[in-house]
Amino acid sequence: xxxxxxxxxxxxxxxxxxxxxxxxxxxxxxxxxxxxxxxxxxxxxxxxxxxxxxxxxxxxxxxxxxxxxxxxxxxxxxxxxxxxxxxxxxxxxxxxxxxxxxxxxxxxxxxxxxxxxxxxxxxxxxxxxxxxxxxxxxxxxxxxxxxxxxxxxxxxxxxxxxxxxxxxxxxxxxxxxxxxxxxxxxxxxxxxxxxxxxxxxxxxxxxxxxxxxxxxxxxxxxxxxxxxxxxxxxxxxxxxxxxxxxxxxxxxxxxxxxxxxxxxxxxxxxxxxxxxxxxxxxxxxxxxxxxxxxxxxxxxxxxxxxxxxxxxxxxxxxxxxxxxxxxxxxxxxxxxxxxxxxxxxxxxxxxxxxxxxxxxxxxxxxxxxxxxxxxxxxxxxxxxxxxxxxxxxxxxxxxxxxxxxxxxxxxx
Length: 412
Ligand code: PLP
What we know:
This protein is an alpha/beta fold. The protein has helices at residues 11-15, 43-55, 66-86, 100-115, 134-143, 163-166, 189-198, 218-221, 246-251, 286-302, 304-322, 350-358, 372-377, 394-411, and strands at residues 24-25, 28-29, 31-32, 94-97, 121-125, 146-150, 171-177, 202-206, 225-229, 240-244, 262-265, 270-272, 328-330, 340-345, 362-363, 365-367, 383-387.
């Protein structure tokens, strides 16, 4: 099998947009395969940041001067782009956050504190990243609610035949990942949200690994909340967004207090703005939002279907080549996975593998990938993960295989 991509996109030209990919690491050309942790940034996003700081920088929503209104237009324009990108009904359904983690914490606090009581159930899955797990455990500790986990099968998929057993009327929210960051599994988001709705539970989709990699439309999926991080999809770090259905967001109290989120304040108390502003206390990450808007423009110019086709072809090819290596075991489903592949090698511990391949300029990730409970269930100390994005190439996969062969020789 060879890498086969029928999108017609000139990926080699697109790769040129990423200056860092020309970097030498330890005297060798960089092979960056740690995209699930954070993606690289195209020149267009860096230019948008420079342009903002050179021509529009000021605080938003406050000043009555020209630069402040430019900054406000840029910030609110980015919110509209995020709304369109996710298929939200309006920009008011988008709250800017620092990323996925902050989005989950926002919902767990603003919604969860007021809505849960002892006996209620928060349903997660066994494949959740710590950021879609720990905030719910903390909420359970505050409210007396219980956290339960839909099991993962030996093939690395959700045990959908057990969904009815777990999704009882006691479940008040079902929060799950769209694409697993350690298994690569793509979960049937729309089906899971429909099932949650049937029992009267809200749904929250963790789109950290999907928002920049495939089409994601909140109305087609039917989720109540969705969270994602900009830095995994070409935008700067420190910016992301929470989508929430408008009437739902409007019904929630704020979770952080401060400037920007109030209607009026007296010494006795305060009243709050409507959503999304009541959830954005203090000066927001204005340049980050502008960078996220630029990243969305960049990704949309390529097309999310094309990106998904490219990543899928590359991950299929990688699996095929990895199968040539004796003593290497790939986790997760064989087909229909996101653009990442996690594996263990009999030869060495994931940390040793990752450190060793770095000598050759190959950036992988080794460890538990913020999935400690899942690794414990799988009886693994962790895995080594190669995660792809649209600028990765078939020859980089070939280089990965060569370097893993070196690993086998070195640790034999
Ligand atoms: N959820 C998933 C599935 C992830 O892969 C990650 C990051 O790797 C996160 C959540 C957390 O994202 P962030 O650290 O950007 O908040």
